Amino acid sequence: MNKTKIIFIGTASFGLPAFKALIKDSDFEIAAVITQPDKPLGRKQVMTSSPIKIAAEKNNLTVLRPEHIIDIREKILRLLPDLIIVAAYAQLIPEAILNLPKYGCLNLHASLLPKYRGSAIIQAAILNGDRETGLTVIKMDKSLDTGPILAQTAITIGGEDTAGILYNKLSEAGADFLVAAIKKYLAGTIAPVAQNFYQASYAKELTKSDGLINWSKPAYLTERFIRAMNPWPMAWTWRDGQQVKIIAAQKEPLEINSYKPGKTFKYNSGLAVQCGRDSLIIKELQLAGKNVLKSQDFLRGQKNFIGTVLG
């Protein structure tokens, strides 16, 4: 039996388990890997390769890193791929490339489409209090996340899950799920089903400013917000012109409504903040340029923090 020739397109670590599963599977041949160019990261702006590039090179695979993927259309055409797989590439694939493979292009997406098309889809599921999210494999079309659905699997969102924890859950689940969906699709046992346009929602890309906490909201929504913003862009607040990151808070709010929203007060040996309804116990926080501290340790060095109004 001939192997299915695949081009894998991805950048972020989200697609790593799925990528590695495809490499190991004897039914597939990875003809090439397409990823984003190396980028400067961190304070020292060190040029850094994508996780997908690093994994590809360890497996002696051909790696292409175009600024714009349309620029290598002819190279893709010459590789004669049967199938293109896309996972967390961070660039829209033009129709001129989608139409090249014999079986089209499939995308592994971290939500239960048509709910949460777009970028901040994992954060959106936590922000909205969803009990589950999941993975979807679609046959890609020219628009963002609008292609027909081939397969879906649901993942429970735990009460303590941050966006980072949920990202890892979905990433790991993607390996076996994607491989199984591809094989069913190639065997003709599943067929693409159009998404319901009227059920679609969109989650825009987050910026640093999106992490600013609005203390006038109820405590239960603020706690959700803090989990959704972790690890990026992190929930943060102002205190006397200084930025403070709120890393973690207690899920169960306090039924305390005695202060102005944003007012800090001591609760037991730790820190609490008044919200628009009820109050929130802060478990971990961080001043700019400092280490993450538990609230008890933080207050030992920041005694004047109690009684201030965050905003």
What do you see in this structure?
The structure is a single chain. The chain is α/β, with parallel strands linked by helices. Helix content is 25%, strand content 27%. Strands 5-2-1-6-7-9-10 form a seven-stranded mixed beta sheet, with helices on one face. Strands 12, 13, 14, 15, 16 and 17 form a six-stranded antiparallel beta sheet that branches. Strand 6, helix 4 and strand 7 form a beta-alpha-beta unit. The protein is elongated, with a radius of gyration of 23 Å.
Task: Give short descriptive properties of this protein.
8 helices; six-stranded antiparallel β-sheet; alpha/beta
The helix/strand order is EHEEEHEHEHEEHEEHEHEEEEEEH
Poorly predicted ranges = none
Provide a count of the helices: 8
The strands making up the biggest β-sheet line up spatially as 5-2-1-6-7-9-10
Our Rg estimate from Cα atoms comes to 23 Å
Beta content comes to 25-35%
Structural class: alpha/beta
Average the pLDDT over all residues and give the rounded result: 96
Proportion of residues in helical segments: 10-25%
Specify the biggest β-sheet. Answer: 7 strands, mixed
Distance between the termini: 64 Å
Please state the overall shape, judged from the principal axes of the Cα atoms.
elongated
* DSSP summary, beta strand count: 17
